[in-house]
Amino acid sequence: MLRGFLTGFLFLCLTGTFYAADTESVRIRVSKKSVSMGTSFTLEVYTVSPIIESKISFSGKEFIVFQTPKKGQFRYHYIAYMGASRYTKSGKYPLKVDVHLADGTWFRESVKMTVRHPKKKVGKVRLSQDKKALSKDTKSLQKESSVIGKGFNTLTPVSYFKQGFKLPAKGRVSSKFGKMRLYNSGVSSRHAGTDIANKVGTPVWAPNHGRVILSESFKVHGQTVMVDHGFGVVTIYNHLNERFVREGQVLATGDLIGRMGVTGLVSGPHLHWGMSVQNVRVDPMKWVK
After folding, report:
1. CATH code for 6-116?
2. Are 259 and 243 spatial neighbours (Cβ–Cβ below 8 Å)?
3. Which pLDDT tens digit goes with each residue over 108-138?
4. N or C: which terminus of the chain carries fewer CB neighbours within 10 A?
5. What architecture does CATH give domain 122-287?
6. Residue 257: pLDDT band by 50, 70, 90 thresholds?
7. Please, are residues 195 and 43 in contact by the beta-carbon 8 Å criterion?
8. What are the DSSP calls for 78-123, one per residue?
9. Domain locations along the chain
10. Distance between CA atoms of 149 and 201, rounded to whole angstroms?
C-alpha cells in the first residue's frame, strides 16, 4: 500500500510548480508543466466521489490513475506517474484529463505542457566481431523486446516502493539516458536507460521494494531481471553475469539481484539500468534520492 512518506518522495523527486484546477467535486494537480527527456512527473486527482471511468492522455499515450489511501479535503485521491517518450519532439502538448465520478459528475481539463529535449549526443560503441554480428540479429531483438515490453506494461494497482530509489550498483556512469549510440555495425539507437560500468561480478542490488516479474537469459539483452515497483513503475537490469532472483519473488531495498557481467550485446562489463512509468522509458537516475 502507499505509505505516508511516499508523499515526501513525490515532492523530493518529481515536484515543480504545481498546476491546479478546482471544482466542487474534483481537483487536479500536475507537478510540472515543463519536462525534458527522461523526466517523470505526476498527475494527482482529488475527488469527492470514486472515479468510475477516466481517460488521461499526453503526447499520444493514454495513462491510468491509481487510487491511494491518502485522505484530505476530498475523500478520494488518485495518482499517475507519467513521462514524455524519448522519441517525442520538443514542443507544446496538452495533458487531457477526463474523469467520470460515481455521483454523476463529469470533469474535463486540459493542461498545456512543454516538452524540451536536449540536442542529440552521439557516442560511438566499438563492438567485437561476434558482438557486431549479434547487433544485426533483429529476429532475436524483436522477440526479446516483445517479452520485455509486456513487462514494462505491468500496471499493478498498489505501490511497493518507499521513499527515493538507491543506485543498484557501484561504478561509473558510462552512458546516460537518451544518448544516441552508433555501433560500428551501423546500428544506432537512443539509450533507454543508464549504464553503470564496473568489473564483472560487481553486486547489483534492488534499488527499492518490488516484485520480480522476469528473470531470464536473453541473447541480445543478456541475463536480465525486471522488477515491478507498483503503480506502473518497473525497472530492468540487463547484461548480468549471474541472477539470484526468481519470478514472483518479493524484494526489499538492498536485496541482491545478481552480479554485473558482459552478457548480450555489450562492449564491456556494465549494468544497463532502465525504468518505465506506464510503459514510457524514463531516466532512473532522476528517481535516486
Report:
1. 2.60.40.10
2. no
3. 999 999 998 776 665 555 666 666 666 667 8
4. N
5. Distorted Sandwich (2.70)
6. very high
7. no
8. EEEEEE--TTSPSEEEEEEEEEEETTS-EEEEEEEEEEEPPPP-EE
9. 6-116, 122-287
10. 27
